[in-house]
Amino acid sequence: MSAAQKAIVPLITPYKMGKFNLSHRVVLAPLTRSRSPNAVPQPHAIKYYSQRTAPGGLLIAEATGVSDTAQGYPQTPGVWTKEQVEAWKPIVDAVHAKGGVFFCQIWHVGRVSNSGYQPNGQAPVSSTDKAPYSQHTDEFTPPRRLRADEIPQIVNDFRLSARNAIEAGFDGVEIHGAHGYLIDQFLKDNINDRTDQYGGSLENRCRFALEVVEAVVNEVGADKVGIRLSPFADYMEFGDSNPEALGLYMVQALNKYNILYCHMIEPRMKLIGQKFETLHSLLPMRKAFNGTFIVAGGYGREDGNKAVEENRADLVAYGRHFLANPDLPKRFELNAPLNKYNRATFYTNDSVIGYTDYPFLEEMNA
Ligand SMILES: Cc1cc2nc3c(=O)[nH]c(=O)nc-3n(C[C@H](O)[C@H](O)[C@H](O)COP(=O)(O)O)c2cc1C
Questions:
Q1: What pLDDT digit, counting tens, does each position of 127-150 carry?
Q2: Where is this region: Disordered (predicted)?
């Protein structure tokens, strides 16, 4: 087939996101890999991330803690200490050496934690003092509700982490406002039961998120800031009674800060890793948001191409497929078959198995 006959693959078309010239629309979604003992990223992440880098591709690093109270899962990295910043540098350098654009997802888990992860065995902090729903009662320690006068400290942790991420070489940061973690614990009315200026009305529930956005924007510049939101998600009982209104309020408020991108989880991903039929859509938020709009959640090649073609998204983030297919953009371009992901090794801590041993297309054809 000649080049002229070659069908256009919408996912493999260039896109200018702020100052970044992306050569395709296939984004590596943030993926916790639980392979960073003592919250320090390891040299094996150099191979993992550079395997997934193609020139002009956007990669979002796994959720990375903003402080010692931000952690809630085994072996997740942080970016609040000098040691962590130094450890990220060679990983970021490797992605840059292959022409990738690399953002760091900065997070605080809030109440999705237990005292074993917390300094001095203290209770995790949250918007509330209600523990998350769990089938295993020992999984979460009931959280301590943050006082309003403590919130600026947490906002400052996000600000300093964003600065550290830039110092480590990242091109920008993605604020993790999704999936029931600390920011979402303020956003969602099923969790947030506060009666102060951080609870109640939509404006009040969004205050903490927007304070974080403002602080991070002031620290590193709006052209380096994205945010991830999941207004429709409601596993572990963290839903909202009016997700459309919440999503719309947030994107309209975000417009005032001129941030680079908004990354939203599709309503069909009500549960992690499981698709549902739904009449809800992100389209109103896509239309209302002025910056780059990234969608994620259950996408394959066909519906990803359609989302770009129909202008429902600028970029599409892929989690599980990218985890299992280091050369995913190339496979989409060629319409090649995909490796299957192995759920059993998503969160194991081996430095190779289920991490850097998924084959490339050439290796399979060799
Ligand atoms: C192993 C694994 C780890 C994940 N870690 C994160 C994370 O650190 N931050 C985040 O925002 N989402 C995380 N997610 C959600 C993914 O980014 C993505 O939204 C989800 O997998 C749905 O997209 P997919 O259908 O393309 O996999 C994770 C998902 C998986 C499977």
A1: 999 998 777 667 899 999 999 999
A2: 119-140
Average pLDDT over residues 188-202: 97
Residue-wise pLDDT tens digits, 3-17: 545 689 999 999 999
Residues with catalytic function:
181
Taking the alpha carbons of 187, 188, 192, 193 in that order, is the dihedral positive or negative?
positive
User: What's the sign of the alpha-carbon dihedral 178, 247, 295, 225?
Assistant: negative
From atom 29 of ligand 1, which residue's Cα is the shortest distance away? 31
What the block records as the tokens of 78 is 């942080």
Q: Which atom of ligand 1 is nearest to the CA of 322?
A: 26
Which residues surround ligand 1 with Cβ inside 6 Å? 29-32, 62-63, 105, 176, 178-179, 228, 265, 269, 296-299, 318-321, 346
Classify residue 258 as exposed, middle or buried by CB count within 10 Å of its CB (0-12, 13-18, 19+): middle
Distance 3 CA to ligand 1 centre (A): 35
For 197, the token pair is 């200026």
